[in-house]
Specification:
- There is one protein chain.
- Helix 1 runs antiparallel to helix 2.
- The longest helix is centred in the first third of the chain and has 17 residues.
- This protein is mainly alpha-helical.
- The chain is built from two helices and no strands.
- The relative contact order is 0.13.
Length: 54
């Protein structure tokens, strides 16, 4: 089954990142939160967890 969830999340993250790059720093926390959520839900393979922020 194909769902649009990943595409929607990717576009949201991309948009938030563009706002940050444009100098509107108030969105940076939301972009980081979205990235942390995205990593915790989609980038785990065989019980290997990845560090979100280095």
């Amino acid at each position: 089954m194909v769902t649009p969830v990943l595409a929607i999340l990717a576009e949201t993250f991309k948009s938030l990142n563009e706002c940050r790059r444009a100098g509107e720093g108030r969105f940076i926390r939301y972009a980081q939160l979205l990235l942390a959520w995205f990593h915790s839900h989609f980038w785990k393979v065989d019980k290997v967890s990845y560090r979100v922020f280095s």
